[in-house]
Amino acid sequence: MTDTHSGASPKLVVLDMAGTTVADDGLVERAFVRAAERLGAEPDLDYVRRTMGESKISVFRALFGTEERAQRANTEFEHAYAELVDSGACAPLPGAAEAIAALREQGRTVALTTGFSRTTQDAILAALGWQDIADLTLSPADAGGRGRPYPDMVLTALLRTRAADSVREIAVAGDTAYDMLSGVRSGATVVAGVLTGAHDEKTLREAGATHVLDSVAALPALLAEF
């Protein structure tokens, strides 16, 4: 499911985590339900599904109105997600680790990004033994706090790694519309949607995907064509 393409060969590859390289299997929704229950609120799963990929604190601000309730909800969500990770409910997607290794073997710099907090991202990386799998890992707080759909994490990865001379030498891959918007807004040449997570091909393409892949495992072969 790849498209024709033109442009510079990507030197920096920015990958999402949950749903793209890490199996979600409903963990985000389960953690959200737990958090809402602990706050005595009704969980709005439809909104959570629509905003998959967005910074979690931004989602809670929209849902809970006040900053105090949003911060409480975010804290409860982080605790609930950590509990699920600690219980063993966290695994890499098939072929993800191999794809990251292959991209680096091709001479590309790889950054892993997330909508979670740094604490939760580190817990996931530790649970998978992925602390050294990528050249850089970023959470929204590491890039000014806005997260997706803003391009901040992608551009921060470029500034931190200095892996490319231009935004046209960046590839972005993710499973949500917010990942696609972030990639498009950053100016990346490749904005690849993967079908292992939250959103379908139609949603990904409408958000600006240049390519749609069955999984991130197909990304090294795609980029090798550039």
UniProtKB/TrEMBL annotation:
Any Gene Ontology biological process:
DNA repair
Q: What name is this protein filed under?
A: Phosphonatase-like hydrolase
Entry GO MF terms: phosphoglycolate phosphatase activity
Q: Which GO terms describe its cellular component?
A: cytosol
The reply on keyword Hydrolase is yes
The lineage, from the top, is: Bacteria, Bacillati, Actinomycetota, Actinomycetes, Kitasatosporales
Instruction: Name the keywords, alphabetized.
Output: Hydrolase
